[in-house]
Amino acid sequence: MMNRSIQTGRDNQILRTASALVDANTQKQAQALARELVDWVKSNDTAVGLAAPQTGINLRVIACALGTETPDGYEIRRVVGMINPCIVDVSNEMCREEEACFSVP
């Protein structure tokens, strides 16, 4: 289980610094970190995602819960880890939800 504290605060330099791309030198570290993040999200009832910088490591690694909307809320189907994730498509559709960030309460 992840033994790291969650970084918080609007002025936190770790959270304000752009994360490094994972390369051949950091690949093994990133893979292990992705597994830790996935395990953490799975074990936390309120989490839908966590990024490496939130744990104090400035690498482009995240874990997020994928699921579907249900009449009772949101049902998580699986949690995936991603290394060097990229946004490849956007839409003009807007969705208003309550913020649930662990780092900026």
Q: What does this molecule look like?
A:
- It is built from two helices and three strands.
- It has one domain (1-105): Peptide deformylase (Peptide Deformylase, Alpha-Beta Complex), CATH 3.90.45.10.
- Strands 1-2-3 form a three-stranded antiparallel β-sheet, covered by helices on one side.
- The two termini are 23 Å apart.
- It has helices at 13-16, 27-43, and strands at 49-51, 61-70, 73-83.
- Strand 2 (61-70) and strand 3 (73-83) form a beta hairpin.
- The chain is of the alpha+beta class and 105 residues long.
- The radius of gyration is 14 Å and the shape is globular.
Tell me the distance between the termini.
23 Å
Query: What structural category characterises the helix and strand content?
Result: alpha+beta
- Stretches where pLDDT is under 50 for at least 5 consecutive residues are none
Please state the overall shape, judged from the principal axes of the Cα atoms.
globular
Instruction: Determine the CATH superfamily.
Output: Peptide deformylase
Report the strand count. Answer: 3
Order of helices and strands: HHEEE
Percent in strands: 15-25%
- CATH third-level topology: Peptide Deformylase
Share of helical residues: 10-25%
C-alpha Rg, in Å?
A: 14 Å
Mean pLDDT: 89
- Quaternary arrangement of the chains shown? single chain
What is the domain total for the residues? 1
CATH top level?
Alpha Beta
Instruction: Please give the count of helices.
Output: 2
